[in-house]
UniProtKB/TrEMBL annotation:
Residues forming the catalytic site: 24 (nucleophile), 27 (nucleophile)
Occurrences of domain Thioredoxin (ranges): 1-98
UniProt site (Deprotonates C-terminal active site Cys): 18
The name this protein goes by in its record: Thioredoxin
Keyword Nucleus listed: no
UniProt GO BP: cell redox homeostasis
Family per similarity comment: Belongs to the thioredoxin family.
Domain of life: Bacteria
Any Pfam family hit: Thioredoxin
Length: 98
């Protein structure tokens, strides 16, 4: 697996990974929502986007079958995951709960 990805998810901060694809309509809808989440939470969350077409090994390791799929990591462990588009409030609530 990509060592920089391991470093990212193993930080002691909460890390939200957005598995997406350029051709995916819902992924495009999610992008501005993620920007709003980052604006609201600031340094409380790190958000990274992983293109499943360019990073198939990482997508396979986390069994990403559809996009967008969001995974929330804390201390290197997946604490939450969901496929599909979520609204900003729902995402903020999930992140703050962890």
């Amino acid at each position: 697996m990509n060592s920089s990805f391991s470093k990212i998810i193993n930080s002691n901060e909460r890390v939200l990974i957005d598995f997406y694809a350029d051709w995916c309509g819902p992924c495009k809808m999610l992008a501005p929502i993620l920007n709003q989440v980052k604006e609201e939470l600031g340094d409380d969350i790190k958000i990274y986007k992983i293109d499943v077409d360019k990073n198939p090994r990482i997508a396979n390791k986390y069994q990403v079958r559809g996009v967008p799929t969001l995974l929330l990591f804390k201390d290197g462990k997946t604490v939450w995951r969901q496929s599909g588009v979520l609204q900003k409030k729902d995402l903020v609530d999930v992140i703050q709960a962890h």
